[in-house]
Amino acid sequence: MVGSDRLPAGRFDVFGKMPAGFRKEDAPVMLQSLLADRFKLAVHRELEEQAVTALVVGKDGPKLKESSAETPPEGGGQAATKKKDSSLGMTVGTTGLRMTLEPTNSSVHVEASRMTMAYLADLLGRSTFGNGRQVVDMTGLEGSYEVTLDIPLAALGTAVIADAGVPDANAQGLHPAEAASDPGGGRKLESLKSLGLELVSRKAPVERLIVDHAEKRPTEN
């Protein structure tokens, strides 16, 4: 975010009452309206070419099973549901996710239905496989698919590792040269390759949020 030095440095408690007929997807727009009203926040977006980590189809083509229109999400409903086997299920939009902790090999097993490649890119961007860069979908695949992945806990960050009860010693840092040359974070995500997909370094236009103005203190109620 460019211009973040213009944002208020303090912390504020926000209490709001949702109107009748409120939909969950309306919340981001309502929050933007609140910030514009109370902090006089003004922003704009622009594109800038940057180095990214691209999710692309491998040389042998995709090996994905497309979800049918009747395929139900397998995450366990809109609310997250947790099982005794360290399995957590949830539904995000139309995508069903189930994540299971595998302590024996220090990884998280992910099973998803109705997953788009854009969502997969976003999921990988939350790990170290993006090398700190945005992961962008460049597969050209527009459907929704059945996806199974095994992601090393070390690639999910120390906060996730701590939450999972796995010692930090399992997280191994990357050598700088290794991280710079391998968009996979110095590791090979074999389960991604089994889907006929891979991560490569590319340049692409990336949308940036520019803060034009923001008051340091909100207006009174």
Describe what you observe in this structure:
- The structure is a single chain.
- The chain has 221 residues and is an alpha+beta fold.
- The protein is built from five helices and nine strands.
- The chain has helices spanning 27-39, 117-125, 158-164, 176-181, 190-193, and strands spanning 42-57, 65-66, 81-83, 87-92, 95-102, 107-116, 135-137, 144-152, 197-213.
- The strands form two sheets. A six-stranded antiparallel β-sheet has the order 2-8-6-5-4-3.
- The longest helix is centred in the first third of the chain and has 13 residues, at 27-39.
- It is globular, with a radius of gyration of 20 Å.
- The chain starts with 26 loop residues before the first helix and ends in an 8-residue tail after the last strand.
- The model is unreliable at 75-80 and 158-186 (pLDDT under 50).
Essential attributes:
single chain, three-stranded mixed sheet, alpha+beta, six-stranded antiparallel sheet, 221 residues
Number of strands: 9
Strand content: 25-35%
Runs with pLDDT <50, length 5+? 75-80, 158-186
What is the typical, i.e. mean, pLDDT?
Answer: 77
Over all CA atoms, what is the radius of gyration? 20 Å
Element string (H = helix, E = strand): HEEEEEEHEEHHHE
Shape: globular
Largest sheet: 6 strands, antiparallel
Helix content: 10-25%
**Total number of helices:** 5
In which order are the strands of the major sheet placed? 2-8-6-5-4-3
Structural class: alpha+beta
How far apart are the termini? Answer: 28 Å
